[in-house]
Amino acid sequence: MPTAKKFAPRASRVEWKAIVCAVALLAAPLALAAQPATVILVRHAEKASQTESDPVLSAEGSQRAKDLATALADAGIGSVITTHLQRTKLTAAGVLEATKLSPIVIQAGGATHAADVAAAVRARPAGEVVLVVGHSNTVTAIIGALGGPKMGNICDSQYSNLYIMQMTSPAPKLIRANFGKADPADPACANTMK
Hints:
alpha/beta; single chain
């Protein structure tokens, strides 16, 4: 005579909702951890022309790009994000060459640029170090989109700023440093963290 199989009673809808909520709460720390550990942001180096729409770097800018590669030689860069413009790609060129990476290119301009870059950063593997090369009017917006402090745009005379974001919970920590040749004194420039 066959034996009767015993089945556990089905969970009610209320129980399933409780199970789903518990799983979501347990997964939340994993979602926070599933993002890059560090994001390094810089503005492109000095450009050769102020009138061209897509200029290359000046001799001073080329040197700054080399200085960036030197400064980040031991940073463990795993991804590099640039815009489609030459000045960002050329600023990242030394880092790309040293790491044998290809850049992730995000179209510059548009109202969603900072959000698009932030989404690309968040899509990178957990624990990765990401370099973002942007523009004077995008770097601080990207910092804000990543959860950092609200800041004014980078002044036209500033190229040496290096922003390091430690992507910690509940809010990222921002460190501001410099690399390469010091920027000239500019009393009109007041780029401070707010």
